[in-house]
Every structure is written in structure tokens, then in C-alpha cells.
Amino acid sequence: MPVFGGQSREQLRQMYLDAWRKYTARRPLEPLEAQLAAVIAEHPEYVPLLEAGPPALEADYTPEGGQANPFLHMGLHLAIREQVATDRPTGIAEVHEGLSRRLGGPHAAEHAMLEVLAETLWESQRCARAPDEQIYLERLRAL
Question: Cis ω on the peptide bond leading into residue 89 (within 30° of 0)?
């Protein structure tokens, strides 16, 4: 079943596994692979899962299971980084900079921000509408 850009969940997860394998083997990385490896390196708790191979591709992470989805978590980091790099919505780079100073660095700021992003995306899906960038930005500014 296609999930993103025609890729299945397993194919998307395989990208993380492949990027990490190349990174640890010190092989050249494509730009997206470098971004994936950077996020993984900041989450050493996920490394054993990624190095386990096929079980990482097949695992289900449900709220009922009580286990956070590491791929969703890392994907939200990537989304925040893209938003900050492009300053979209306008003002998010400034919010990130302020949170980075206040919370002890960019990674801590991302952790605070990704909770708001996840909530905004969940509401958008629940209501079958595009995310409201202004409400999202207001929530981020309230952190």
C-alpha cells in the first residue's frame, strides 16, 4: 500500500536502515541519507532497532501498544528541520532559534516543536483539511 510518494511503509523505513548502514560503513551518503543519518545519530536508543534489520521494517507501533513509533519521531525531526531551513511557515526559524537558546540547543527545540507538529497534523487528518499554518505557528510561539 503506497504511503508517501508511492512508497510503502516498509520502503520508507528501509531508507533509514540503508542510510544508517552506509553511515556506519563510512560510505558516501546522498543528501537525504545524510539527513537521516544525522537524526539517527541523535537518537542512539533507536540504533539497535535499525541494526536489527527486517523486524524494524515490520513492527507496528500503535497507541494501544504503548511504544512510540521511532520512524514517526525521526520523520517529525526531519520535517521540523525542513520547515526551519525554509522558514515556512514564516517565523518558524525565529521560534526555533529562541527555543534552541532557552531549551539548550536545536535538538531540544525540535523535541518541543515536534509535539506541536504531530498534534497539528493529527487534527488536520481528523478534520480532512490542510494544516492551519497560523494556528501551528501560534502554538509554537506559546512554547
Answer: yes
Q: Grid cell 510518494 — which residue?
A: 5
For residue 6, the model assigns a pLDDT of: 67
* Three-class DSSP category at 74: helix
∠ CA(109), CA(32), CA(119), 5° rounding? 40
* pLDDT tens digits for range 130-143: 999 999 999 999 99
In angstroms, the CA 5 to CA 101 distance is: 35
Whether the model pTM is above 0.85:
yes
Helix (H, G, I), strand (E, B) or coil at 66: coil
Buried/exposed code over 2-13 (b: 16+ C-beta within 10 A; e: otherwise): eeeeeeeeeeeb
Contacts of 76 (CB under 8 A, 6+ apart): 114, 117, 118
For residue 2, what are the contacts with CB-CB under 8 A and spacing of at least 6?
8
Q: Tell me the three cell numbers of residue 15.
A: 531508507
